[in-house]
Amino acid sequence: MKKISILGCGWLGFPLAKKLIKKGHSVNGSTTSENKLVVLENAGINPFLVALESESVSESIHDFLDNSEILIIDIPPKLRGANADSSHSSRKIFVEKIENLIPFIEKSTVKKVLFVSSTSVYGDENGVITEETIPNPETESGKQLLLAETLLQDNQNFQTTILRFGGLIGEDRHPVKFLAGKENLENPDAPVNLIHQKDCIKIIEAIINQSKWNEVFNAVAPFHPTRQEYYTQKAKEQTLTLPKFIDEKSNIKKTISSEKLENNLKYQFNIENY
Q1: For residue 267, with 0-12 CB atoms within 10 Å meaning exposed, 13-18 middle and 19 or more buried, which class applies?
Q2: How far is Cα 31 from Cα 26, in angstroms, rounded to an integer?
Q3: Helix %, strand %, coil % for the chain, to 5?
Q4: Overall number of domains in the chain
Q5: What is the pLDDT of residue 82?
Q6: Is residue 240 domain-resident?
Q7: Is 229 helix (H, G, I), strand (E, B) or coil?
Q8: CB burial readout 78-101, b (16+ within 10 A) else e
């Protein structure tokens, strides 16, 4: 049994915590919502109200990390839309949050960190993308995720594994719901790079069970139909209005490879979920 702290018990962190508890681990879970504390507690998670800001960290961070061997950081940058161009994002607000967190990790019992990142750190590269591909982020969130990755990896007080997820999908979350009925969608023949919530959780479990630390893994299902094929089919399956794509070739044809993860962890994705 391991003592694990999960910073961010949201869409992924909450079901992950429940799965780890089922496997016999003790889990501390954080939330920024006071109302969610009882939800975490009812699920068997040790609940903590932790606000990670660019200027400060909640006092509760000490107890949240106390006696834990592993810390899973699963907090999104939240820099999309208008915020991406604000003066706050130019200050690298997400990076500052990680910078503020690191001294508390250093003083704690945590020796292993798993940082949930994104394949957005690669930008719009063409061809097959592996962990050897030099990241070239174009979005503000991608840029700050890459800086945060480096901060954690460069720290010698703990071992960090970076997990770069593709587009996240799940039973309650699918991009086709936002694309249904839309017109003039670009990149019709660009490949999809997706990962299901169930695979996310199993991969994190495998990293912990096999002690795969000081690593970088891409985590995207080896399933890459074109955007037009995939989202048209999904819209039909869910009886949604079909999305309409522009009739031209895509400029970007990026395929994320998870071959390293599959080989290193002996992991098999469940393509039926896609």
Answers
A1: middle
A2: 17
A3: 40, 20, 40
A4: 1
A5: 37
A6: no
A7: helix
A8: ebeeeebeeeebeebbbbbbbebb
Domain assignment present for residue 8? The answer is yes
* CATH number, residue 90: 3.40.50.720
CB of 12 closer than 8 Å to CB of 74 = yes
**Residue 159 included in any domain:** yes
pLDDT value of residue 268: 97
33 lies in which domain range?
A: 3-170+195-222
CA distance 197 to 203: 10
The CA distance from 273 to 221, in Å, is 10
| Residue whose C-alpha is closest to residue 101's, from 7, 195, 36, 179 | 7
Residues 154-181 as b or e (16 or more Cβ within 10 Å = b): eeeebbbbbbbbbbbbbeeebbbeebbe
Contacts of 236 (CB under 8 A, 6+ apart): 242
Q: Please list the alpha-helical segments (H only) found in the chain.
A: 13-22, 37-42, 61-65, 87-90, 93-107, 140-154, 176-179, 197-209, 227-237, 259-265
Is 56 exposed, middle or buried (CB count within 10 Å of its CB: 0-12, 13-18, 19+)? Answer: exposed
- Residue 79, pLDDT score: 57
* Residue 271: inside a domain: no
Find the angle CA(252)-CA(139)-CA(259) to the nearest 5 degrees. Answer: 55
Residue with tokens 């174009």: 138
Which helix or strand (DSSP H or E) is residue 30 part of?
Answer: strand 26-31
Spans of the chain, pLDDT less than 70: 79-90
How far apart are alpha carbons 19 and 200 in whole angstroms?
A: 12
